[in-house]
Every structure is written in structure tokens, then in C-alpha cells.
Amino acid sequence: MNWIKAAFFDRDGTLIKDVPYLSDLSQIEILPGAIELCSFLQNLGFKLFVVTNQSGVARGFFDENFIKEAHNYLKKLFLNKGIFFERFYYCPHHPTKSVKIEYLKNCFCRKPNPGMLLKAAHDFNIDLSKSLMFGDKLTDIQVGLSVGCKSFYINEFFNCSNYDKFEFQSSI
To answer: Is residue 1, in this structure, part of any structural domain at all?
Structure first.
């Protein structure tokens, strides 16, 4: 079986500006350095994925159709820069706050639980020990480490453009 290496990215605060409960495509702003880091990793042979908690669905701020629309929009924005995301995985649940009972749960896919990464690994034959996780919250780092990925903290203040590519490459 051919195993691949992956780079997993949280969405809000890592790839795009963190807008609380993003609800309009016009609010999407790619963070500085995100394109460069994704391109760099893609050129090293990493397949790119997004893994994101989207409790705004559970809380009633938007529905799953909006998430799919936002992810299609993001996929096109990045594709216009030569960046291809294999798949976007998301968790619409929340363990304590939900306006709909079907979204009220602490599920296996909600970070820091490893469900989204394990699903991607199954779907794409990913070697998690050779893969990377990037995020702006402790839960992102925890999920990456829990499945054996090297994990990196990024946010809009300490963004992707601050990394020395040579130093970064030697750590992977």
C-alpha cells in the first residue's frame, strides 16, 4: 500500500482571519504567509487537508450548507494560487451548547478528539507519523500530537510568514 504524508490545517486563525462565527463569504481573508507555507509543503510532497471545528452550526449561527459553500470558496481561492486541498473535514457539534439536539454531543470528530485526522488517514492512506498539524489553538496541537503528527502553532500574530523555510524543512 502506498502511504502519503499530509499537512493538516485548522481553518480559522490559521489559514484565514478568525472571524467569530464566520457567516458571509466576504469576511474571508487569507492570512499572510498561508499561501507560501501551503505551496512550500505541497512542493515537498505533502497532501493538504483542512480540519476545523464549526460549532456555529450547533449554536444556530449558520448551517452545514454554508460551511460547504465557504469551503468551496476557499478551495477556489487557494487553487487560484496553485494550492490544492484534498479535502475539508469539519465538526458541526458542540458538547454543551446547541439549538438542535442532533448537534449536541461531544463527538469523536471534535478537536482535540482525533476523529477528523483518523478519518482522513483512512480515506487517503495517510502515514500520520510523517504528517504535520498546524493550528492556532491548544486543541489543534493536542489533536496532532495525539495521532503522532508533528504539530506547529500558528496564528494571525505569529503567522506562517515568520517561519524560516530551511529551519522548518530540517525539522520535518
So the answer is: no
pLDDT class for 86, splitting at 50, 70, 90? very high
Tell me if 130 is assigned to some domain.
Answer: yes
- What residues are labeled active site? 10, 12
pLDDT (0 to 100) of residue 1: 72
Domain of 145, CATH number, reads 3.40.50.1000
pLDDT tier, 142 (very low <50, low <70, confident <90, very high otherwise): very high
Give, in order, the Cα–Cα distances in Å from 165 to each of 57, 126, 160, 168: 37, 23, 10, 5
CA distance 22 to 28: 8
Q: Provide the domain count of the chain.
A: 1
The mean pLDDT of the chain is 91
C-alpha dihedral, 32 to 34 to 39 to 44, nearest 10°: 120
